[in-house]
Amino acid sequence: MPTLAIALVLIAAVLHAGWNVLLKTSGDTLWTAVRLQAIGTAILLPVGIWAWFANGMPGVPAEAIGLALLSGVLEAVYFVCLSSAYQRGALSLVYPLARGSAPLLAVLVGILLLGEHLVPLAIAGVASLLAGILLVSRPWRALQAAGAEHRGAIGFALATGASIAAYSAVDRLGVRLTEPWIYGSMLAVIATTLLAIAVIGGRRLGVLAPAPVPVPVLGELPDDPPRAVVPRRSRSVVLARDAVAGVLSLGAYLLVLSAYAIAPLATVAPLRESGIVLAAAWGSLKLGEAAGGREATTRILAAGLVVIGAITLAVAR
User: What is the pLDDT of residues 140-156, one digit of tens each?
Assistant: First the structure.
């Protein structure tokens, strides 16, 4: 794997963990996801258009447009699932589970559908992934005592992992058909539009959770359905936070697309998961998601096992 690709992916992992922290702590995660995507798109699109003209308006293959459309659908699903998981569970639970399950799902597809076989080193990587995922999610606790909300976080996190695996494979193909900035611009517009439609339509139809109520909550009747409560923030603070999240999200994804253009998917995708340790540590230590130092240490070590497993799988291929 080229040194440049490694550097791009590691920087992207830090940026990715950063905007996930901002999304988790935003309160209304679904609408924040729409805004951060819209902000990122508003920044990227003029640059993409200028670069297109500056490079002599190169033609874009129909296959690249089709793949960008497919990836846009998958990314909209990704943001809905990720936001729904964060509404129900902790950052140090959701992020490692979502990011770590993606390479594991890719292995399962290879074995069950493509007839692939694992070498001993790859088996060790799968074992490390499974151990880390089980330790960080502890499904036995979710099924017994944590309640339906915690189980929902695990389900949405796994669905997020499936969408990551799917759009990563699509993007790996699409970015090789045209320039990364052209593909990224098309993808950003499509994903943002579909995500906004999904969130607005889903909330009006009652399919997605309603927006949390800022505190203090006044005027609710006893029979009103329960809704999440979030701290009231000024509009300027909200916009500033979303702008930072949008820039971080955009930067992370452009760096990954650039890495896809010069390195194989099998090595880029697992290395992206190095941000898992950062997210697990931040959630456990800074957000107080762990019940004591022992649980915080367990979550961070479990996240480390996920990263080791993902990298081991990449090396074994």
Answer: 555 554 555 566 788 89
Helix (H, G, I), strand (E, B) or coil at 289: coil
Q: Look at residue 225 and tell me if it is in a domain.
A: no
Residue 217 in any domain: the answer is no
Contact 253, 36 (CB under 8 A): no
DSSP 204-245: HTTSSPPPPEESSP-S--TTSPP--EE----HHHHHHHHHHH
Q: Max Cα separation, the chain?
A: 63
Spatial distance between the Cα atoms of 311 and 302, rounded to a whole number of angstroms: 14
Residue 13 lies in a domain: yes
Distance CA 300, CA 306 (A): 10
Cα distance between residue 197 and residue 266, in whole Å: 33
pTM of the model: 0.77
Q: Is 41:133 a contact under the CB 8 Å cutoff?
A: no
User: What's the pLDDT tens digit per position in 27-80?
Assistant: 788 899 999 899 989 988 888 888 888 888 888 899 999 999 999 999 999 999
- What is the C-alpha to C-alpha distance for residues 133 and 138, in angstroms, rounded to an integer? 8
Phi, psi (deg, nearest 5) at residue 227: -135, 150
Domain total in the chain: 1
E strand or H helix at 58: none
Q: How far is CA 253 from the centre of its chain?
A: 10
Residue 58 within a domain: yes
Looking at this protein, which amino acid is placed at residue 112? L
Those residues of the chain that have pLDDT short of 50 are 145, 217-226
Domain range holding 86? Answer: 3-211+235-316
Q: Of 268, 283, 273, 267, which is closest to residue 307 (Cα–Cα)?
A: 273
